[in-house]
Known about the structure:
Elements: H1 2-20, E1 29-35, E2 41-47, E3 55-57, E4 62-63, E5 72-78, H2 86-100, E6 106-112, H3 120-130, E7 137-141, H4 144-154, E8 159-161, E9 169-171, E10 174-178, E11 184-189, H5 193-208
Parallel strand pairs: 5-6, 6-7
Antiparallel strand pairs: 1-2, 3-4, 3-7, 5-10, 8-9, 10-11
Helix pairs in contact: 2-5
Amino acid sequence: MKKYLLIPVLAALLxxxxxxxxxxxxxxxxxxxxxxxxxxxxxxxxxxxxxNFRFLNQDSVYINQDxxxxxxxxxxxxxxxxxxxxxxxxxxMKTIFDKYKGNxxxxxxxxxxxxxxxxxxxxxxxxxxxGVDVPQWQFVWGDKKEVYGLAEKDYLVAVQEDSAAxxxxxxxxxxxxxxxxxxxxxxxxxTKPEEVExxxxxxxxxxxxx
Length: 210
């Protein structure tokens, strides 16, 4: 009889370990002196967050950080005419979307780096073709300076125009996991299925964080 009792006990222990596991926070950090409720000074570690932004989405509506309030989200940088890594990235990213479709705590955010062509109407057609034209997955267009600056300084993803490149642009294929406090909690190569599976597992961990 005792051996049968071990199964729920082990399951409970495994669940507890998953609940207690936390993902690291990436990006710059600094020590700041703050005061608690009693006025006592203490040193807190403050991590860099994704700053506020304002971009047009596929429905020609401006969105900002409020759109992602109290959500975790996966962000990436792409362009619709990309013939190299983008199609692979978004096929893989759609498997993540399919897993969390309808989950009110999860969103997706794809920034185009083709500021010349990828206007909202183009992004709309792209989202429809991919089968993800829903509010849970936002495709956004913005000014080159703002988008490129956000990519490199905040999401830590390299992007640039390059006339020598096959499609005129080059960029890294990272899928960046952002928590509800706008911290970077992971970056994953969106072209590699094993990395995408790791992202799915880490999203489960992040959603279980207290």
